[in-house]
Write a structure and sequence with these properties.
Blueprint lengths: L35 H25 L5 H15 L10 H25 L4 H5 L7 H21 L8 H12 L5 H32 L4 H15 L6 H18 L3 H19 L1
Helix pairs in contact: 1-3, 1-7, 3-7, 5-9, 5-10, 7-8, 7-10, 8-9, 9-10
Length: 275
């Protein structure tokens, strides 16, 4: 794809450049026109809409709902990353429950950027170069096979690897035929990485980067990415991947490498659980 521009202010610069897009303190220059609070409020709005839609769908499917059931689901998920009620659903029902979050996150990101009269592609770094694919894939695989195992090594006496994999294992267990497997793979490997990177490393990270240095931006965005998944046992892995993806975006000023890394990261889990 052709080389893009950021907010129409000139060509993209490589990470070693010291041009007008970067200050000496490592902040993105010019800063995005949207604020960090706008990005965070966008997440809250997307989450609220998702909860309402999911409650409506679950009531139609006779899934236990109400304050008590919602509190129980939240408590179990926070404690171990499990989603107990989801096991009684078919793969298409489970996928349909994820669509409200993906759609609202994408819509919120688009709305916040377009509100300032900026094109989504240039504002969020949606340009892609040929080497983004191999770089992203290698980084995603390295995170899964090298970095995360090292992070969990000191935690082995306290955390069972089966417990860490349990949420993904229970989700992929819904893929009981070829059609279900294809739908789940598309959702986990293609849709989720694109939407999550669009928001977390596009909208949110750039808002932070315009107001603080690169290191703090990557670290804080990674922590927020991990916390947003509300899974305690998986939090270290999520933060680690957030650091990898954030570093890719800060180094290249493009989302494509992080998206490919996210796809590879999720793809490893999918392949392992479908074997």
């Amino acid at each position: 794809m052709p080389t893009g521009r950021i907010a129409g202010r000139g060509p993209l610069l490589c990470v070693c450049d010291r041009g007008p897009l970067m200050s000496q303190r490592g902040r993105l220059r010019p800063p995005p026109r949207w604020s960090v609070s706008a990005a965070i409020l966008g997440w809250i709005a997307a989450a609220a809409i998702t909860v309402v839609v999911q409650l409506v769908l679950e009531s139609l499917w006779a899934v236990p709902s109400g304050v008590g059931a919602a509190a129980a689901r939240a408590g179990v998920q926070v404690a171990g990353g499990a989603e107990p009620d989801r096991l009684d659903l078919s793969y298409w029902q489970f996928t349909l429950l994820q669509l409200p979050l993906w759609l609202t996150l994408a819509a919120v990101t688009w709305a916040i950027v377009r509100r300032h009269g900026i094109g989504l592609r240039s504002a969020l770094g949606l340009e892609q170069r040929w080497y983004d694919v191999p770089v992203g894939l290698v980084c995603g695989l390295a995170a899964q096979f090298l970095i995360i195992p090292l992070v969990y090594l000191p935690l082995r006496p306290y955390i069972d690897s089966q417990d860490i994999e349990e949420p993904a294992r229970r989700i992929m267990a819904l893929a009981d035929d070829a059609t279900a497997a294809a739908v789940m793979v598309a959702a986990v490997v293609l849709v989720a990485p694109f939407v999550e990177e669009l928001y977390f490393r596009g909208l949110l990270l750039r808002a932070l980067w315009g107001r603080m240095g690169r290191v703090l931006t990557v670290a804080l965005s990674a922590v927020l990415f991990g916390l947003a998944h509300v899974q305690i046992l998986q939090l270290p892995a999520l933060v680690v991947f957030g650091l990898v993806a954030g570093t890719l975006v800060v180094a290249t000023r493009r989302l494509a490498p992080a998206m490919w890394a996210h796809a590879a990261f999720n793809g490893v889990t999918v392949v392992q659980l479908l074997r």
